[in-house]
Amino acid sequence: MLRQQFLPVAQLQRQYLDPTSLQCRLTLEIAALLILSLSGIAGWTHWQMQQILIATHTQQVAYIASRFPQDVELYSEMLPMERGLEKTIENVSVSGLMIWVRARDGQLLAQSPSLQSEKFDRIDWQSLRGVPRKPQVYQVGNQHLILYMGALIVHGQDLGKLYLAKDVTQDQRQLMMATQRLGGVCLGVTVVMVVVLSLRIQRSLQPLQKMSQMAGAISAADLSQARLQLQNAPREVRELAQTFNRMLSRLADAWEQQRQVVSNISHELRTPLTIVLGYLQSLLRRSANLSDYQREALTTATTEAEQATRLLQDLLDLARADSGYMHFHRESVVLMDLVTEVAAMAEQFSDRAIQVSTSETLIAPETLKVSADRHALKRGLVNLIDNAVKYSAADQPVVLSLQFTETQAMIQVGDRGVGISLADQSRIFDRFYRVDEARSRATGGHGLGLAIAKTLIEGMEGSITVRSRLGEGSTFTITLPREVTI
After folding, report:
1. Of 15, 199, 285, 446, which has the fewest CB atoms closer than 10 Å, so is most exposed?
2. Which range scores top for mean pLDDT: 302-311, 322-331, 416-425?
3. Where are the transmembrane segments (predicted)?
4. What is the CB neighbour count within 10 angstroms for residue 380?
5. pLDDT tens for residues 405-446?
């Protein structure tokens, strides 16, 4: 049956926040469009309101500036000039407007009664170029002022300079507060819209996510049963799902044919090869009347026949594993005894030094047990030792070590050989994959030893990993669930 896979929350978050995912890209693009659109609307609204505010106050100041000389002329006909200036200031004054008049020598002639002269004396009028022509808004410190400075001419006589200053700071602050509120509303609308659109996009992409999860969960045993059902999906996604299902059917047929071919060929060839090998071995035992050339030829033929027989047996084992016919007889196994036995056997047949070591914290080796098939575990371990012997120098030992945790037991097979590159480490457990073709042919390898070891160990609910560096050697680690002793 197809295995159901449930992704953890952290992995789901990484998937949804992945900038390369379609959902994340669509959400970010729509969010960017919303932010740009609402920001543009808010900015345009703020600009329009500010223009209206400025226009209203500048028109008022401009009107007073144009009216001021006429009123001075009227009052000066009835009153002294200084009194006429004060009377005119009182007449045209409005809330927030400061007016004062200075003679050309800098003497103050008249001013608004509530004028805070020290605040306006700090204004650098010379730096405000162009101000005398018409009222403009300037920021002075933390205040916003509409400033005007112009010549005061009465009856053709230049009396000095007329200064007008209207404080619009409060109105400007209210405008900024209104703009901030508008920006907050736009931000809230953007967040709500992004969340809603993200959920909608996520729902629309669920069929594709189901296809991705199924493709990641399918194994060779699931090909004939795995089918994708997406009745409520959009038409384009349904067509993709149908194509996906047809591809699974073709893969299932091809995989079944491959298994049948491998199994049939292995069965058909194993018997005649066994007979041939038996005859060759019998001839070698009776080789007293044979020449050296004939004995050498028989030895070569026997060796090749033995390799072919082992290859066929390996192929049969893999075919059984693929078909689900490989069964394991699980029993309690003391790892120290098994490792010692395999090391002695491998040392005898390989003429190489095989060392056995244990963790310093393992006080009682007989307590380190696993529930495993003894024969399968020995065969997997022999394959790893054989691999270490082939790819390391003859004067270098192969080291078997036992490690453990509270729940797991580990057998490590280490060598000081040529090592394996990082690119090859992910493929060395593939069938028929050989890192060095020339060396593999010289040592008689077919690229199945590690694949069989992996199949056997995983069939006992264990795992096998490799750690290697070029020129320094490799360490293969078999990990099995530790048997709890009561």
Report:
1. 285
2. 416-425
3. 26-44, 182-201
4. 30
5. 888 889 999 988 888 888 788 788 887 777 665 455 445 556
Query: What are the percentages of helix, strand and coil residues in the chain, rounded to 5?
Result: 60, 15, 25
- What's this model's pTM, rounded to 2 decimal places? 0.47
Q: Quote the tokens at residue 4.
A: 């159901």
- Would you state the structure tokens that stand for residue 368, as one six-digit string? 């380190």
Selecting from 3.30.565.10, 3.20.20.70, 3.30.450.20, 2.60.40.1570, what CATH number does the domain 16-204 have? 3.30.450.20
Q: Give 172-179 contacts, CB < 8 A, sequence gap 24+.
A: 172/53, 172/144, 175/46, 175/49, 175/50, 175/53, 178/49, 179/42, 179/45, 179/46, 179/49
CA 58 to centroid of chain Cα atoms: 57
* Class (C level, CATH) for 331-481: alpha beta
Q: How far is CA 465 from CA 35, 132, 348, 414, 478, in A?
A: 50, 85, 27, 12, 7
In terms of DSSP H, where are the helices of 21-140? 22-78, 81-92, 117-121
